[in-house]
Amino acid sequence: MTTDRAHRGLGELTWFKSSYSGSGGGDCVEVAAARETVHVRDSKDRTGPHLSVGAAHWTVFVTFASR
Predict the structure, then answer these.
(1) pLDDT per residue over 11-60, tens digit each?
(2) How confident is the model at residue 2 (pLDDT cuts 50, 70, 90)?
(3) What phi and psi values does residue 53 have, to the nearest 5 degrees?
(4) Which terminus of the chain is more solvent-facing, meaning fewer CB atoms within 10 Å of its CB: N or C?
(5) pLDDT of residue 28
(6) Which of 33, 30, 26, 27 is nearest to 1 (CA)?
(7) How far is C-alpha 42 from the geometric centre of its chain's CA atoms?
(8) In whole angstroms, what is the distance from residue 50 CA to residue 8 CA?
């Protein structure tokens, strides 16, 4: 897992990229958890837009995706 700290008008976020993500420039996402939201971004475009979802909705998504 790799991490990156960034200030994006949301306070300081610590972004995590899965250790399952390859280093060959493939399609990867990074996730940063804040108090009430989870942020998702494209690891190839760290300064680009990102998606923010409520923590409860993220939990539902992860539970569904891990089945």
Answers:
(1) 688 998 877 676 666 678 899 999 899 999 988 888 889 899 999 999 99
(2) very low
(3) -130, 155
(4) C
(5) 84
(6) 30
(7) 8
(8) 10
Query: Element (H or E) spanning 46, and its range?
Result: none
Can you point out the beta strands (E) in the chain? 2-7, 12-17, 29-33, 37-42, 50-54
Contacts of 18 (CB under 8 A, 6+ apart): 1, 28
- Pair of tokens at residue 4: 């990156």
User: How far is CA 42 from each of CA 22, 67, rounded to the nearest angstrom?
Assistant: 14, 23
Span 4-9, average pLDDT: 52
Please give the structure tokens belonging to residue 6.
Answer: 């960034």
Q: 21 and 4 in contact (C-beta within 8 Å)?
A: no
